[in-house]
Amino acid sequence: MKLPDLSPEIRYQFARSGGAGGQNVNKVATKAELRFDLRNSTLLTAEQKVVLEQKLASKLTTDGELVLTHQTERTQLANREKVTAKFYKLLQKAFETPKARRATKPSKAAVAERIADKKRKGDVKANRRRIDPD
């Protein structure tokens, strides 16, 4: 499914982040937080909103806002690009239809091998038992 360009409705916030950067970490707000208001989006259709609300329910706030963060890079721009890519990848994955599972049976050889293995293990355990002299 082709998604529209959602960049006009994406909001970014920045904060100080941990990780690499030395003293830079204490001075510069490089952590990027992407916020997208799913329920009030004008670029998505009603059907798309329903699908996204179901598939991304665990990632949405109570107000229906999708919040993603990225903080591993040293620059604000790099973190912003990574979180934007993560956002579009997440939406694309939500619209993918899962591949149908085809039921299969184990082959006769596989079944025979499994039973033979069980027999071998049972024999090993039987040989561990104490033998009573009569």
SSE arrangement:
Blueprint: E1 10-15, H1 24-27, E2 31-37, H2 46-55, E3 65-70, H3 76-95, H4 108-128
Antiparallel strand pairs: 1-2, 2-3
Question: How would you portray this structure in words?
Answer:
With 134 residues, the protein is of the alpha+beta class. The chain has one domain: Double Stranded RNA Binding Domain, CATH 3.30.160.20. It has helices at 24-27, 46-55, 76-95, 108-128, and strands at residues 10-15, 31-37, 65-70. The protein has a three-stranded antiparallel sheet with strand order 1-2-3. The protein is elongated, with a radius of gyration of 27 Å. The model has no long low-confidence stretch (mean pLDDT 88). Its EC number is 3.1.1.29.
What descriptive keywords fit this protein?
alpha+beta, hydrolase, elongated, 134 residues, peptidyl-tRNA hydrolase activity, 3 strands, Double Stranded RNA Binding Domain
Short description:
Its EC number is 3.1.1.29. By secondary structure, the chain is of the alpha+beta class.
Which parts are unreliable, with pLDDT below 50 for 5 consecutive residues or more?
Answer: none
| Overall outline | elongated
**Oligomer designation:** single chain
Number of DSSP-assigned strands: 3
Report how far apart the termini are. Answer: 78 Å
Q: How would you write the strand order of the largest sheet? A: 1-2-3
Give the helix proportion (percent range).
Answer: 40-55%
Q: At CATH's second level, what is the architecture?
A: 2-Layer Sandwich
Q: What profile does the largest beta sheet have?
A: 3 strands, antiparallel
Using only C-alpha atoms, the radius of gyration works out to: 27 Å
| Annotated CATH topology | Double Stranded RNA Binding Domain
Average pLDDT figure: 88
